[in-house]
Amino acid sequence: MISSLNKLISLLAPGKREYLVVDQEFKIIEASLGTQRFADCPNQVIQGKDVRLSFPELIGLENILINIIKEREASFEIKSIGRSIANSLPLYIDIYIIKHPYQESKKNQLIIFLEDITTRMLLEQKLVQSSNEKAILISALSTSKAYIDKIIASMGDALLVTNSCGVIKTVNEFAQTLFGYEQSELVGNSISMIISDQNLLVTEIQQNLSEQTDSLKYLEMVCRTKRGEKLEIAFSCSAIYSDHQNTASTKDIIYVGRDITERQRNQKRLSAQHITSKILSESATIAEAIPNILQGICQSLGWDAGEFWADQNKLNSISILLHCQETWSRSVVNTSELTALRRQTTLAPSSGLAAHVWATGSGYWIADVVNDTSFAHPESISLPGLRGAFGFPIQGDSEMLGVMIFFSREIQQRDEQLLQVMDAIGRQLGQFIKRKQAEEELRNQKEETDRLLLNILPCAIANRLKRGSGTIADDFAEVTVLFADIVSFTEFSAKISPTETVEMLNEIFSEFDQLAQQHGLEKIKTIGDAYMVVGGLPTPQDNHAEAIANMALDMQATIPIFRNKIGKDFSIRIGINTGPAVAGVIGLKKFSYDLWGDTVNVASRMESQGLAGQIQVATDCYERLKEKYLFKERGAIFVKGKGLMKTYLLMGKKD
User: Could you tell me if 226 and 287 lie in one domain?
Assistant: First the structure.
């Protein structure tokens, strides 16, 4: 196949062309030996590499290349591509693309031919230069001028010739069309009419060509048309002498410019898409992503300000009132003033660009806000100096979530492809917002579920249940259990309303809950007017008996406060016991953490057979606490199921 391909190349352009063979994914399959000389990045001309890395001119032409592969187009040419080679003459090439002709062996492949046209391009430049060598070619002036004018008129690039001071002497027809001026409007005036950066004009072109070299191979500059539109122009600049003296005062400068505006726009569009995707992938929240996206899009596109608007009354489906929630601007706009002003601004559905985009659900472009009369523009009042504007909606699942609008200090002609890109970004951002809202809602539900679960179960037990533990039942060698009961509460509650009963119990037990938390104890349950708390589980602790004793004393101390508050005389009975117990979770639908064993039963008997206003403890608990607390021996009492038991009354702490 290689010999057949070489034969084809020799027939098409013997001795002049190099070639590349690429597949439908634009990866290099084969390259001739001399191909690297033509590449923008020679080290990328490697089998398996994307051909666009070495020949960036192909970026943006993917649809055309696919059409050639699909045989919807026969071929494609890119003419007069300039290369800058250090310490050497400029290199110019033509690119010619066809589908691989040998389909029986190579399917869906392209052949890219590369032809060196440097000689021809340099010859054209010399021909242009020759039009200014009046003193040398005076005898053939008429013929040469007509010939050169014909070449200039037929050029597909803008050509301007200035003197050393930058005054335009000659322009071709393409330059007039490109910049929107008549020849008479340009000739005799400064080239600064079309080149925005005059400092660049002086330092990089006129001074460079006048003092250092006769050739400035390649320079990209921002130019302006007569209507004020911005154009990106790639200039090749050269100096020629207009007489035999070879002095700076007789040196003219030739500008050969190619309009690369669309290529630059495409790169900016791709950059905006890339930076948006990157920000969304790295942002944890909506609040983090929105300002970064405003900044990223502005910087990618070269625009000056961006805003994010959303419905201030989104809970009210009847009226819509848009509110500016985020702003970003370059230093050319006063950021602090912009932010303060816009955050105070709201828009009704019929006012402003943001409101119009919200109402229509589609992107909108304004070339010049100042002169646009399609609808009212409060933006032009609150953001003076800004001209071009566009906006696009942010939607998720057919729901309008917000609007982003952007402003430029320059008049900006409508860019339909950019609006399409922004529409895709709006949908991408809408999906991100909906996802983050769902995550936030799920997180809130989980937190609420966890909070409710922790109100029912101890934290350690709740965590075990969430991990999927089966039956939870644990043995504890020693815990201390407290039961408390409000004396004669049944008779007392009969004299007040049910609501007052519940409110009083809630107030008392809420205070007990705080005491339990303060002493590091675990509340087990309340039954009517009875309260149960335990120390030493589910996490074992050495001071569980002391903690229960302290809580019991604090509980007794709070009762006089409640008596004075409600004006009723009541007291509580408390019983305490220390010993082993079993604790676990029971139930399938309504979980309950409880404990069982003889220790629990005795503690309950200590309370039920105790004295009003007293704290009664069993012998095991007394033995644990007698060194630190004061006790009064009550004597032996009969306990159901246990017989006679010696008990003690806890009076307080020892000094």
Answer: no
Beta-strand pair 305-311/399-408: antiparallel
DSSP 27: B
SS (H, E, C) 405-446: EEEECCCCCCCHHHHHHHHHHHHHHHHHHHHHHHHHHHHHHH
Of 202, 232, 259, the one marking the end of a domain is: 259
Residues 6+ apart with CB under 8 A from 312: 321, 322, 323, 346
Greatest mean pLDDT among 54-58, 125-129, 345-349, 527-531 lies in 54-58
Q: What CATH number does residue 250 fall under?
A: 3.30.450.20
pLDDT score of 349 more than 60: no
DSSP reduced 3-state for 47: coil
Does residue 447 fall inside a structural domain? Answer: no
pTM over 0.85: no
- 230-247 pLDDT tens trace: 888 888 888 877 655 555
- Say which residue, 36 or 339, is predicted with more confidence: 36
Do 450 and 421 meet the contact criterion of CB atoms below 8 Å apart?
no
Domain hosting residue 106, numbered range: 2-116
Question: Of all residues in the chain, what percent carry a pLDDT higher than 70?
Answer: 79
**Residue 127 in 3-state DSSP?**
helix
**601 in Cβ contact with 641 (< 8 Å):** yes
Element (H, E) at 636: strand 629-639
Question: How many CA within 13 A on the CB side of residue 506?
Answer: 6
195 forms bridges with which residues in the sheet?
Answer: 223
